[in-house]
Amino acid sequence: MGNTPGGMPGAPGGGDPAQNKKAAEEKKKEKKEPMAAPSHFGRKKIKKSKGSMNSSKLPPILPNAKCRLRMLKHDRIKDYLMMEEEFVREQDRLKPKEDKENDEKTKVDDLRGSPMDVGSLEEFIDETHCIVATAMGPEYYVNMMSFVDRDQLQPGASVLLHHKNLSIVGLLGDEVDPLVSVMKVDKAPLETY
Fold first, then answer.
1. Where is the composition biased (Gly residues) (predicted)?
2. Alpha carbons 1 and 58: distance in angstroms, whole number
3. Which of 11, 48, 70, 96 has the most CB atoms in a 10 Å sphere around its CB?
């Protein structure tokens, strides 16, 4: 008599005695099987949970292949954008240089003036002064502007002169050697032999 009615299958006190025997035999077989060898020896390692590290780890994202391809595509786009940003930064950095060069060129052109005369350099007096002969005939003691390349100047070279103060503002690039042009006869001699 008890709490469980007799004849209920699966109840410990009742049910099918054949099933109870089978269950008892299976338990004995499980106990008789050898235990698996331990995979490690020594003290059991205690897993330490790193509180903030575990919470900051990202979960694995699946499917992995599509996500990796997408990440690589975005990395390449990021690289292109960084290159473009660097290019724009360099252009902004170089732009003031170009403006400064243009301003200097306009100042030099203003100093030179548009109408210019051509003369021949006769001799150097000092670093900033020399004697120049013009096509009209007279020789002048003139000033050399600071932007003229003095290394290319030599006696007999053709130079550009400012039309008002006759200062040297440039050098004419001759195809002929200046020493040869000095020896050239401009006018035919009056004497006949």
1. 1-16
2. 60
3. 11
Q: Is 43 helix (H, G, I), strand (E, B) or coil?
A: coil
Q: Sheet of 158-162: strands edge to edge?
A: 139-143, 129-134, 116-124, 158-162, 168-171
Nearest in space to 134 (alpha carbons), one of 168, 110, 183? 168
Q: Token pair of 135, please? A: 């096509």
User: What does the alpha-carbon distance between residue 177 and residue 152 come to, in Å, rounded to a whole number?
Assistant: 12
Per-residue pLDDT 10s for the chain (193 aa) are 556 555 555 555 555 666 777 777 777 666 665 666 666 666 666 666 555 556 667 677 666 777 888 889 999 999 999 999 999 999 888 888 888 888 888 887 777 666 678 888 888 888 889 999 887 778 889 998 888 888 888 888 888 888 777 888 888 876 655 556 666 666 677 777 7
Residues 6 or more apart in contact with residue 127 via CB below 8 angstroms = 150
